[in-house]
Design brief:
The chain is α+β, with helices and mostly antiparallel strands. The chain contains 9 helices and 19 strands. The chain binds adenosine-5'-triphosphate.
Length: about 375
């Protein structure tokens, strides 16, 4: 069993900065966990603590039933893949993959069979005699993964492994990493700031903010029911539209809701849940009157940027929506013209409501 448990893990850097503020979660054996969050939220620090490259100020990290706080990185039975592959330039691909095993004194035939098996899985068998400089970026990344695979560790740790690759290769390697992990069934922790990578790779998604876990769960559950406006605007692109509601407006919108008359809040609606229509809105549905400010045609779909006159938008952290702006995501390429007045509507069951400070989801 190689489940990983973090129990009230904290990290205070010398100088007093609290980078990790008490994190608790468990990754069951064989699951793929992704840590996602904006720059500086502490995801690399947390990963490095699991790896043993960073000390733990308090709390416990448990790998496969053993508390590893005091265990050296080399003895934790983990293998790490970084964004800079850190291959030895003068060694062949074969030797790069075999190096760590030789250092451990593993018998030659065992090393050979592990390297060849990993190379076959990664489809780099024909490149085993080449030097890293004779490989493309994607191929080097595979060698870096091969080096981790041959160790047959309890846990794989990935720190933004794809960020040096171009966009197309990133997508291809993302799919490969997922297939590989499904095949090997090795518990994995993967750090990224890319929400798409996080959504597509994770069995368990951990959204971090300011050294804390903002939300943890299955990626689609998080997409459907973000716990805070931070998560709502971080997961999903373009981000969820967030609109400040004054006391009274919530009552009008969510007819019959008792909080509505006195409490302010934030209404959320995803760009893909809005459609442009002059139809009457069903009870509880949302209708926004917009002036089209800009159009982005990306091929299969079009993003319509509209402004609400007299309306208050909310810039939630990480605040991608300017005040009063609403994004509507429509299929195809047919779009209204800039300057046109349109109505965007969404049904009641696609609306989200948050407390006025954005820290709490309210189910209505
Ligand atoms: P990024 O995506 O930019 O790598 P991150 O979420 O991985 O960000 P960390 O590298 O974990 O963030 O850093 C978390 C916080 O801890 C940051 O505010 C950073 O400045 C701080 N920090 C990191 N290393 C140290 C250190 N050695 N001493 C003091 N503060 C540090």
């Amino acid at each position: 069993m190689s489940n990983v448990s973090l129990r009230n893990v904290r990290k205070t850097y010398p100088g007093g900065f609290e980078a990790i503020k008490g994190i608790d979660f468990e990754i069951p054996d064989g699951q793929f966990c992704v840590l996602v969050g904006p720059s500086g939220c502490g995801k690399s620090t947390l990963l490095r603590m699991v790896a043993g490259l960073e000390t733990i100020s308090s709390g416990e990290i448990d790998i496969g039933g053993r508390v590893v706080n005091e265990v050296e990185p080399a003895d934790r039975d983990i293998a790490m893949v970084f964004q800079n592959y850190a291959l030895y330039p003068h060694m062949s691909v074969y030797n790069n993959m075999a190096y760590g095993l030789r250092n451990r004194g593993m018998p030659k035939p065992e090393i050979d069979s592990r390297v060849r098996e990993a190379a076959a899985i990664l489809e780099i068998t024909t490149m085993l005699e080449r030097k890293p400089r004779q490989l493309s970026g994607g191929q080097r990344q595979r060698v870096a993964m091969g080096r981790a695979i041959v160790r047959q560790p309890k846990v794989f740790l990935f720190d933004e492994p794809l960020s040096n690759l171009d966009a197309k290769l990133r997508v291809a390697m993302r799919v490969e990493i997922r297939k590989l992990q499904r095949r090997l069934k090795t518990t994995s922790i993967y750090v990224t700031h890319d929400q798409l990578e996080a959504m597509t790779l994770a069995d368990i998604l951990v959204v971090m903010n300011g050294g804390e876990v903002e939300q943890i769960g299955n990626p689609l559950d998080i997409y459907r029911k973000p716990a805070t406006t931070f998560v709502a605007s971080f997961i999903g692109a373009p981000p969820m539209n967030l609109i400040a509601m004054r006391p009274g407006e919530i009552g009008l919108q969510f007819a019959g809701d008792s909080r509505g008359t006195t409490t302010a809040g934030i209404l959320g609606v995803r760009p893909e849940d809005l459609s442009i229509s002059s139809d009457a809105v069903a009870p509880g549905g949302l209708a926004l009157d917009l002036t089209v400010e800009a159009i982005e045609r990306v091929g299969p779909e079009t993003f319509v940027y509209g402004s609400r006159e007299g309306a208050q938008g909310v810039s939630a952290t990480p605040g991608e929506l300017p005040e009063g702006e609403v994004i509507v995501r429509i299929p195809g390429q047919t779009a209204p013209a800039v300057g046109e007045h349109i109505r965007a509507i969404a049904p009641r069951d696609k609306l989200h409501l948050f407390s006025a400070d954005g820290r709490q989801r309210i189910d209505v």
